[in-house]
């Protein structure tokens, strides 16, 4: 029978990179940490860590065991939280990551409201454009926008949104855009994280689906939608951005939509969570809460 405390210590050692750092993080002595790692290896009958005077690293077996160890610890934590749940609401920690822009506009307000309903639940929100590894970084949920890559994670649809080609009034005045061919020749601003940022299926006013592709490389690339929005407002070129992000700038006249009678493909919003046999109550409840809140605010 595996000892969950020893699994916790093993995960802490891997994350901290040394017995000493793990001992400090756990509030234990180095001797206790070392003893429990040795006993875990005895229980399993394998070596998990390679120890030298300079560094600590995982063996091949340890590399395979570590993610499974994290999943087991997560399931144990979720099971304990579900069993201990009472009428006061959810408890434990809900750890969520999202992009900075959608996080600020939608996820953080939803988390604030969710926290008021479940005061015993501690919430950790990480705002990043980087796609975190949910298992390795111990996230319960990741909010993702756009097309999903193949993954072993579960995906719950939350909402969808339009994307709009926008530019500043000064840029449009100097370079009026009348059709897709002219738009394809424009100075484009693109997100550096997209694998194919300048190619889309566009529906024309005649309801025909055509492939729209920009052949020239973008004049500016940035790693966030907020930066692209700022570049567009400064007259640097055309950016394809979410309607929920550009709406204030459109209403104030800082940006114009180019070819508004053409439809670029709608993008989806998903809540991703680990594909474990036991999905925690806090994950299920928050996904339902976020989906209902987005629907009501839409």
From TrEMBL:
Q: Which residues form the HTH lysR-type domain?
A: 2-59
User: Keyword set for this entry?
Assistant: DNA-binding, Transcription, Transcription regulation
Q: Which residues form a coiled coil?
A: none
Q: Does the keyword Cytoplasm apply?
A: no
Q: Which PROSITE patterns match?
A: HTH_LYSR (PS50931)
Q: Tell me where on the tree of life, at the top rank, the source sits.
A: Bacteria
The family assignment reads: Belongs to the LysR transcriptional regulatory family.
The protein in question is named LysR family transcriptional regulator
Q: What's the source species for this entry?
A: Yersinia aldovae
Per UniProt, what is the name of the gene that codes for the protein in this document?
Answer: dmlR_4
């Amino acid at each position: 029978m595996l000892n969950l405390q020893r699994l916790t210590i093993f995960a802490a050692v891997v994350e901290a990179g040394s017995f000493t750092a793990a001992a400090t993080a756990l509030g234990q002595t180095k001797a206790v940490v070392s003893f429990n790692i040795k006993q875990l290896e005895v229980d399993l009958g394998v070596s998990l860590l390679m120890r030298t005077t300079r560094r600590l690293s995982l063996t091949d077996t340890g590399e395979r065991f570590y993610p499974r160890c994290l999943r087991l610890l997560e399931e144990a934590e979720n099971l304990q939280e579900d069993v201990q749940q009472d009428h006061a609401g959810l408890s434990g920690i809900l750890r969520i990551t999202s992009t900075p822009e959608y996080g600020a506009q939608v996820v953080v307000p939803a988390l604030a409201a969710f926290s008021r309903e479940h005061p015993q639940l501690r919430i950790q929100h990480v705002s990043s454009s980087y796609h975190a590894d949910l298992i390795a970084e111990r996230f319960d949920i990741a909010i993702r926008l756009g097309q999903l890559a193949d993954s072993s994670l579960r995906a719950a649809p939350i909402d969808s949104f339009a994307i709009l080609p926008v530019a500043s009034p000064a840029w449009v005045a100097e370079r009026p855009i009348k059709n897709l061919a002219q738009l394809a020749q424009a100075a484009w601003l693109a997100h550096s994280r997209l694998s194919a940022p300048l190619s889309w299926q566009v529906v024309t006013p005649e309801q025909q689906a055509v492939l729209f592709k920009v052949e020239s490389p973008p004049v500016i690339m940035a790693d966030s939608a907020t930066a692209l929005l700022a570049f567009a407002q400064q007259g640097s070129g055309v950016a394809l951005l979410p309607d929920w992000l550009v709406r204030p700038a459109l209403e104030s006249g800082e940006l114009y939509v180019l070819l508004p009678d053409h439809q670029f493909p709608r993008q989806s919003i998903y809540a991703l969570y680990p594909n474990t046999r036991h999905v925690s109550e806090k994950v299920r409840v928050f996904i339902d809460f976020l989906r209902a809140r987005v629907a009501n605010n839409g």
